Amino acid sequence: MQSQRIFTTQEQQLLEELLVHRRDVRGNHFLKKSIPREVIDKLIKAALAAPSVGYSQPWEFVLIQDQKTKQAIKKTFSEETQRATLQFTDQKQKEYNALKLEGIIEAPLNIAVFYKPKNGPVLGQTSMPDMGKYSVVCAIQNMWLMARSLNIGMGWVSILDPEKVKKVLHAPSENQLIGYLCFGYTDMFYNQPELELRKWDRKKLQNEVVINEKYQ
Ligand SMILES: Cc1cc2nc3c(=O)[nH]c(=O)nc-3n(C[C@H](O)[C@H](O)[C@H](O)COP(=O)(O)O)c2cc1C
């Protein structure tokens, strides 16, 4: 048994810094510089350190660097964007159209993250079947934070048709797309969410989202 690791106040502050300075990075800020293999491995290792329901580790990661594959994914983004625009009206539609909401082509590395369901029952997932998918989200968050610690930007793209993404990547039919992620070195990181900066939405206050004991 290894002796337990105790973190110093300074180390705790470092985690706080990482949490505060993690950002969603979009196409206009990615640099062309490619991510070395050993750095990609660090991102994957971070994902594999995530918690998972019943220790099921129900994840698979497709590393994409081929421009042709990225272009095929970008096609579904463009189609879905057209559909998305129609769901907003007036000023909000104008604002939506002005946003850059992905960096599929610009990011040197894309990673598609899949949930791979297990045959048979999973410990802990017997009452709430979505727990496996939430485990995959934990893995994605680990990658996001690890990337930020390496000064690499990550952007999560969800304006995609998951079935089309699966088709492009020849994914097994049982796999479910959880996240399509874009990674790359960046020219800058915003100090606050870009959507907050652009006044798309405001940050919720703690007292708006924390309930004491019970809802009224
Ligand atoms: C599940 C999920 C899906 C997201 N999908 C998109 C997306 O399709 N396009 C985009 O520009 N940002 C996407 N984002 C990023 C959010 O817009 C971003 O996290 C939020 O605005 C807060 O900004 P920050 O991550 O820089 O703090 C996604 C984030 C999450 C957690």
Describe the structure.
40% of the residues lie in helices and 13% in strands. It has a 4-stranded antiparallel sheet with strand order 1-2-4-3, with helices on both faces. α2 packs antiparallel against α5 (131-149). It is α+β, with helices and mostly antiparallel strands and 216 residues long. It has a domain at 35-118 and 126-189: NADH Oxidase (3-Layer(aba) Sandwich), CATH 3.40.109.10. It has 8 helices and 4 strands. It binds flavin mononucleotide.
Quick summary:
The chain has eight helices and four strands; from the N terminus they run ααβααβαβαβαα. The chain is an alpha+beta fold.
**What are the distinct ligands in this entry?**
flavin mononucleotide
The CATH fourth-level homologous superfamily of the domain at 35-118 and 126-189: NADH Oxidase
Judging from the principal axes of the Cα atoms, what is the shape?
A: globular
The topology string of helices and strands comes to: HHEHHEHEHEHH
Binned, the helix content reads 40-55%
What is the top-level CATH class of the domain at 35-118 and 126-189?
A: Alpha Beta
- Give the beta-strand count: 4
Task: Identify the notable features of this structure and list them briefly.
40% helix; 8 helices; NADH Oxidase; alpha+beta; 216 residues; binds flavin mononucleotide; 4-stranded antiparallel β-sheet
What is the topology?
Blueprint: H1 9-21, H2 37-48, E1 59-64, H3 67-85, H4 90-98, E2 109-115, H5 131-149, E3 152-157, H6 162-168, E4 176-185, H7 194-197, H8 206-209
The chain binds flavin mononucleotide.
